[in-house]
Automatic annotation (TrEMBL):
Residues 11-322 form the Enoyl reductase (ER) domain. InterPro entries: ADH-like_C, ADH-like_N, ER, GroES-like_sf, NAD(P)-bd_dom_sf, Quin_OxRdtase/zeta-crystal_CS, Zn-ADH-like_protein. Gene3D superfamilies: Medium-chain alcohol dehydrogenases, catalytic domain, NAD(P)-binding Rossmann-like Domain. It holds the Pfam family ADH_N. GO terms for molecular function: oxidoreductase activity; zinc ion binding. This is NADPH2:quinone reductase. SUPFAM superfamilies: GroES-like, NAD(P)-binding Rossmann-fold domains. PROSITE patterns: QOR_ZETA_CRYSTAL (PS01162).
Length: 325
């Protein structure tokens, strides 16, 4: 097998494409021939030694991929050679093959492309857990999605619409805002040009959004939280802008609002049955055409450095996907 190996986590430039030994799956594992893998923001952080999970060196990065089962380890039930699967494994995706715990594999129904499947679990499971579970989103409520053109943002737009909500998508350019409308947003705000507070007041008749989906953090958080509706739920997804905001907690009191943490990975570990049910609903929504990953570009696995460079430029709309020929 071949894979991108991280031997020194100082950044993307230290990754190297290397031949590695083919290892049979251990007990409870599947060996998967990887057909497609997608980039997520943690993939960048982990090779920079900035992510909360620090795998032992050396390691193959790549949190998420899809492919075909080539071998089944001892004790594995429910999978056979030839099955199509997707997985969110934390590492191992940026290569031609990977051995993974079978508990991490999601069987793919017929008609689910490898490219879509590789860009599905992390962003859609995160957004489903956030909006449906943590926020208890109701039909007719208004959701503000920050960073709406990114991977989790585009997933959040689609899931909120599938749940019957009205969606305001906030992004950093007119082009990104236009793409958000194409995938279902009811209204948009270009926060590089306009005041978030003024636009939210106009778009909600002064009420504010019922739910805020925030994967950005930084200096957007406080003005948005000041605009949230009574009994609003502010979903803390991540901090793509870099800075972790410090919200004045008196605002939560005055608004009767909740600040709600969203950590899908831990939820999946602690509540596997609820996570499996969410993934099942998402797969059904995919089959019904209600959700579909937005793919920015599909590149060769050998083009990982170029994909990271595009991610770092903040030009990506949706997800970047790498494929093995």
């Amino acid at each position: 097998m071949k894979a991108w190996l991280c031997e020194n986590p100082i950044g993307v430039e230290a990754l190297s494409w290397k031949d590695l030994p083919d290892l049979p799956p251990g007990p409870g594992e599947l060996r998967v021939a990887i057909k497609a893998a997608s980039l997520n923001f943690p993939d960048l952080l982990i090779v920079q030694n900035k992510y909360q999970m620090k795998p032992p060196l050396p390691f193959v990065p790549g949190t998420e991929f899809a492919g075909v089962v080539e071998a089944v380890g001892e004790g594995v039930k429910g999978f056979k050679v030839g099955d199509m699967v997707a997985a969110f494994s934390g590492t191992g995706g940026f290569g031609t093959h990977a051995n993974i715990n079978a508990m991490l594999a999601m069987p793919l129904p017929a008609g689910f492309s490898f490219e879509d499947a590789s860009a599905f679990i992390c962003t859609y499971a995160t957004s489903h857990h956030a909006l449906i579970d943590r926020a208890a989103l109701q039909p007719g409520e208004t959701v503000l999605v920050l960073g709406a053109a990114g991977g989790v943002g585009t997933a959040a737009i689609q899931i909120a619409k599938a749940a019957g909500a009205r969606v305001i998508a906030a992004a950093s350019s007119d082009e990104k805002c236009a793409r958000c409308v194409e995938i279902g947003a009811d209204a948009t705000i270009n926060y590089a040009k306009a005041s978030l507070r003024d636009e939210l007041k106009a778009l909600t008749g002064g009420k504010g959004p019922d739910v805020v989906y925030d994967p950005v953090g930084g200096d957007l958080a406080e003005p948005v939280f000041r605009s949230i509706a009574w009994r609003g739920r502010y979903l803390v997804i991540g901090f793509a802008q870099g800075a972790i905001p410090a919200l004045p907690l008196n605002l939560a009191l005055l608004k009767g609002a909740s600040v709600v943490g969203v950590f899908w990975g831990e939820f999946a570990k602690r509540e596997p049955r609820r996570n499996a049910a969410a993934l099942q609903q998402l797969a059904q929504w995919y089959a019904e055409g209600k959700v579909k990953p937005v793919l920015d570009q599909v590149l060769s696995m050998s083009q990982l450095p170029e994909a990271f460079a595009r991610m770092g430029s903040r030009q990506v709309v949706g997800k970047l996907v790498l494929v093995n020929a």
